Amino acid sequence: MTDPLPSPARSRSVPWSLSLGQPAQGETLQRWLYRSLRQAILDGRLAEGARLPGSRALAQQYGTARGTVQLAYDQLLSEGYLLAERGSGTRVSRVLPDASLQAGPAPTRVEREAAPQSDGPWMQRVGQLAPAFPLRPPNSLPTAFHPHRCDVRGFPVDLWRRLHGRHLRSSKLAILSETEAAGLPALRAAIARHLDLARGVAVSPDQIVVLGSVQQALDISLRLLVSPGEAVWMEDPGYPGARQAMLAHGARVVDVPVDADGLRVVDAERAAPDARLAYVTPARQAPLGMALSPERRLALLRWAHERGAIVFEDDYDSEYRFSAKPVPALRSMEGGDSHVVLAGTFSKLLFPAIRIAFVALPWQLVEPFQRAASLAARNANALTQAVLADFLDEGHFDRHVRRMRRVYAARAEAFEDAARRHWEGLIEVPPITAGLDVVTRLLAHEERAAWQRLAAAGLTAFPLERYTARAVQPPSLTMGFAAFDERAIESGARAVAAAMRGPA
Fold this sequence. Notes:
The protein is an alpha/beta fold.
């Protein structure tokens, strides 16, 4: 049996570059060092259990005598701020003499009033929006039935580690240097090949820009193409992050209803024919799940050609279609190469923390987009890009997606079956043909009441109103199935039924 790993607190050490400020006039070095270290502990800069350098090392760092450091340490030890443990060195005590002092001093009224006020237009717009994503997401596996999540437990971690090690050999350390703002050439070429084979999109690697997320791609597109006050089309219901990016930019968001054929292009043209950009999820509408019909695709491209507009195609999880081949990308149609920005992400196909996405651009946007990406983000992690390029080129990506497609299809079937057995009269689940989640219809409760019941039971689902601006939809919940195995689906379905049938 292996030894247990040390706790995070006990493994921390104080960085040698810890800034302690300057001594006050007439203050002795011993008093200055004692006071500065004590304040750093109370402010939390030196965390509980953190290890301090030895007295000799700290004396060398600050140019003092070793005895001066030792005297300051001894005083802090005697007052209970530090602990000296045999074999562990000197550490910050876990229980301070006065716990009420741990928080730093509150700013005075004068300090608050003197602080600069952030009142720029972008700050004002962002301040009025609820966060589109959790600012501090839990570092844990999702609870049933959290939508929009893949199953990270199915990812081939050992293979990824070996590919990582390949690029950390001494002969390949150039990968640790800067790379092009548009992304690593090897990854851009691999993405272009993948788009050609899997999505029918013929594109040059020079038209690919690698980014951290589709959200970032949309933000840059808005900055380049849309002036504040100009109209953009947004699906309603639709992806909340896209809508909030538009609002933060100052665009005039035109909420366009969707039906069984996807975005109602006629309604959009009637409301804002002069829109500069249209945001769509044509392969699988987010969140409702239908594909944009061929007639609507042609109408959308015709509008973009006539108006000189751009269609932003968010191709977020088209690889996971269970009953048929993926719907062709809008970008692959005639005219798409000059009017469609195709955006894709590996965060839903592999694992969220990879933070690698891409755009396939019309030629006229390549140079402006590269310049904007360089200015706004520099480039995504080059080492991760190199590993992902190998993962794509050596066929690991295709094998992983095929395997997870089978897994998710089985889980979709298990989810439907559990719903039939446990949710009769409560929740109706439509046939699931693609994706990681599904919009279910509520039969016995309103959205907010259902959501509150599930949250109280430790369950997760998103009310459809989270995605809706103006459209009127039946009471519904977006529920995920892909991240949960059959056993978790069964137990989660029972828990949902108990929560929904329990007392209000």
